């Protein structure tokens, strides 16, 4: 290599001096090490960017802007007959409430002495399109309040909300027909007066999805119920079936070609793309068995099939980790093989099985693709299900599918909801994985 | 819901059977449980399981078979000429089902009496209008054949359900009676129960096979249907993907395959070097503190749902790339190479990030499986650590790492959400990574969501795509698992 | 081959190659080697014997700083090679290990061809200017490893395909190829059958003419057969060190005698 390489290859040099070659090799060593550190740094950086992104863009969804107004519930408009008959009150549609709201905001603005060129209708435009329905719901629930003036908290429309959160800025609203700069002037004044304020947004966590025009009213609660019912189905089916299959394969199955096929099959199923399970669900559960479309039951069945291999693999690992001496001991005192397994091996493997199941459930909870094919996406359910049967069978969405739905919509106000939904989804996943880790730490036995 | 009640009754019966069987066994031994062949509870379990399991099994099979049977019976009622020109038997059958469901609803809401529903004639009454009143919307007026078929559909399924309840109840009763009569102190209850449980265990294990068969069959038949409507040469060898509703769609997989492979290659170009170097550093250089800190953090990336990565691609990475490569004068590079956030690069990079922990943890296992003696041998000769890794550890681990990369490739090819949100929807052959392209999984989602018509090639093509995807990933997995397994054996 | 030179070298005056002074080794909390002083001579086979866990292998691995690869291992005291402290901060273990080669308990050929196995050391240390020189080094080393005749026709076949004894001689040839001055052998025959063992022992005897050889062994017979000097380790202490004949026939320390006669071990 170098010019000082001599014919006698190893001159008895001093160890205390590094040869040029050693220096070069050490430099190469340092570089190689740096690549490794660089790779890890990139990986961790990506994680940090992802987490930062989610948190910075999603936390906004947990805050919502409200406008507090004193609303005069005019008897002449809401209950013309004046007999507080609920049936009659219900006949007044949301259109009947709009003028009341207009009056309320106009009164508020003049009362505060704010100078604005806006008409009452434009002022009311600061409120959500949901405002009239909100008020109507309140009146139907409390008909005795008709005739009184009540303080009512209305949802602000998403542009106002975005303005307070810094998403909507004045420079960009020139072509926006939903908001004008005069309206924003009014918002500034109302914020100063304490009429418009942000508070914690329970409706996002508990509420239902809303239509395209009302991002401020959209919530993830109902699809969370959908996810919950799917997870119940997965837990009820995948755990017993998975454990039974693992027990057979690990403890009883003879070594033959059939067992081999099953084993190869399971490890391959674990790597089949999730969308293929969606196709299976669509073809078998919906097209063939005519189970209802968009039902959490079907979603749960599909996710069960998808999760089974994961649960089987982890259950087998924890059965395998129970030493054979335990089985021998049980057999030695005259237990049958089945008794040895069910009385001794299974309880010892239970923590491991539970951990694997929780991880499998977490995987199923975050899965989206198969749900798209069985119709669990879109603006589906506007009310939380009543009872278990309805929860399983009536159309619903699921958290990840809801997030996807929001991400597809045109209004950027929904993106904030999507990131916020991801925060909630990740809170669930982190909790589940933490429980799994704690279980493993606490009950893990080293034989 | 008669089904729910049936199952609940069966469960209640089996609980009762447990106590009865146990009691009878004890009684036959004169109350002395030591005289019994098995523990008393085994006699109870025997009665409970013999009654319950066969009945539930028959119930499940019946539920699976009944639709198939009714479908074939009813569709034979529809004459060839009753199927309109542009339609198929499948479409007419779905009309039939809708009408039948509508009639069911009408009866249960009390709008019609059962007799009315059964004897209604489309010649004399406006079926569409009456069903519309209770919220069942029908696309067209109900033709007599359809109404006829719907009525016999209702008949058959009512009869079927009644028969099912009867048969299942009978089987349960016979099971209980038989096992109860057999219960005696000399009866080997434990052996019988254990055999029964064994059968259930085997059934559970074979569900994995059933799933695979289900996957293959469900896609296979629809694929055949597709190829009867659309030429297979166009599917496999055509050059264009252009579905339309005029009936002359060009549905070739090749442009989709190109997009899929292009994105996968970019993902692997990101994931393999980073994942491999991370694994090397963690297993060969890092001390315990670094390892126990960095490894779980990296693995978090693997636990994040793909929808999150999809959103990250669509809303963060895509716009960031546009800021670099697009926006003309206002962009960072001042070029106009990229117009929208969705592109091959967007999806590929994000998918690569997702695959980093996948590659690194598989490689980590594989590198750790290389015996320490190899490293000692090399270090003992005066090799530096990196020389040892590059020239001894890596060549030894190579087969395993190839397996890991193949598994990662299979993941990339089958990944859906990231490409649905990040790759775009345009099918084309292009080498420009800044353009948006589409993939097999994206097209499956778009062909099967929304209004689908299972008689049109535009919908059915999704099954052919799915089958191709399945075969592709299965092949990669089998190959990868075989390589990894062989590699493990080498050092076991 | 080079019998002549070998003969000449034996005649040379013995000089100290490695000197250890007050060496202590700690594995975390455990004190594995306690204050060991020993002088290892050039062109001599020195055997380390003792019951398992006595620290003989640990000490051997200190001599070419293989213990560096274990995080929790800490070595104190001085080990001098030709008068230079090998634990000096300026010493690069890579250069040291080129001078002090090592053969391990289990034969560990790399999963490469026989040729590449032997050429590995010369390549990383840059000992050959061209392919011809490398070929020459490989042949010379395989000859010194007494395996040339068995493998010369299949140099491109994987080293892992050889028998255990052949593999171990290949590993010795691989160690010799970097032209070391000292060869450390950690129970080189423990995984071999008697015939292969005899071949390796014969080889060790030949190697003595060029190198200082240090061998750790479980077998006292082997120590007696191949070594000129023997060191007896017990519970981390160097109990006795002297000419092999003396250790085996007339040990000074009662513990050595107990071990030789089979009472501890």
TrEMBL record, chain A:
GO terms under cellular component: plasma membrane
Keywords: Cell membrane, Membrane, Transmembrane, Transmembrane helix, Transport
Membrane disposition: Multi-pass membrane protein
Comp. bias (Polar residues): 1-16
CDD domains in UniProt: TM_PBP2
Protein name (database record): Phosphate transport system permease protein PstA
Taxonomic lineage from the root: Bacteria, Pseudomonadati, Pseudomonadota, Alphaproteobacteria, Rhodobacterales
Transmembrane segments: 32-55, 228-249, 269-291, 297-319, 340-362, 418-439
One GO biological process term: phosphate ion transmembrane transport
GO molecular function, one term: phosphate transmembrane transporter activity
Location, primary (coarse class): membrane
Superkingdom assignment: Bacteria
Localization annotation: Cell inner membrane; Cell membrane
Family from the record: Belongs to the binding-protein-dependent transport system permease family. CysTW subfamily.
All residue ranges annotated as the ABC transmembrane type-1 domain in the record: 224-436
PANTHER family the record matches: PHOSPHATE TRANSPORT SYSTEM PERMEASE PROTEIN PSTA, PHOSPHATE TRANSPORT SYSTEM PERMEASE PROTEIN PSTA-RELATED
InterPro entries: DUF3333, MetI-like, MetI-like_sf, Phosphate_PstA
Region of interest called Disordered, as start-end residue ranges on this chain: 1-20
Species of provenance: Tritonibacter multivorans
Automatic annotation (TrEMBL), chain B:
A GO CC term attached to the entry: plasma membrane
Pfam families: BPD_transp_1, DUF3708
Biological processes, Gene Ontology terms: phosphate ion transport
The entry's keywords: Cell inner membrane, Cell membrane, Membrane, Phosphate transport, Transmembrane, Transmembrane helix, Transport
GO MF, any single term: phosphate transmembrane transporter activity
Ranges annotated as spanning the membrane: 43-65, 161-180, 200-221, 256-282, 302-325, 337-359, 460-484
PROSITE patterns with a match to the protein in the record: ABC_TM1
Topology class, membrane: Multi-pass membrane protein
Domain of life assignment: Bacteria
Entries under InterPro entries matching the protein: MetI-like, MetI-like_sf, Phosphate_PstC, PstC_N
SUPFAM superfamilies the UniProt entry points to: MetI-like
Ranges for domain ABC transmembrane type-1: 257-480
Family matches, as CDD domains: TM_PBP2
Compartments, record wording: Cell inner membrane; Cell membrane
Family (UniProt): Belongs to the binding-protein-dependent transport system permease family. CysTW subfamily.
NCBIfam families linked to this entry: phosphate_pstC
Function according to Swiss-Prot or TrEMBL: Part of the binding-protein-dependent transport system for phosphate; probably responsible for the translocation of the substrate across the membrane.
Protein name: Phosphate transport system permease protein
Organism annotation: Tritonibacter multivorans
TrEMBL record, chain C:
Gene Ontology cellular-component annotations: membrane
Entry protein name: Phosphate import ATP-binding protein PstB
Keyword terms, alphabetized: ATP-binding, Hydrolase, Nucleotide-binding, Phosphate transport, Transport
Superkingdom field: Bacteria
InterPro entries noted in UniProt: AAA+_ATPase, ABC_transporter-like_ATP-bd, ABC_transporter-like_CS, P-loop_NTPase, PstB-like
UniProt domain ABC transporter: residue ranges: 18-260
Short name of any one Pfam family annotated for the protein: ABC_tran
GO molecular function term, any single one: ATP binding
Gene Ontology process terms (BP): phosphate ion transmembrane transport
Gene, per the UniProt record: pstB_2
EC identifiers of the protein: 3.6.3.27
Species annotation: Tritonibacter multivorans
UniProt xrefs under CDD domains: ABC_PstB_phosphate_transporter
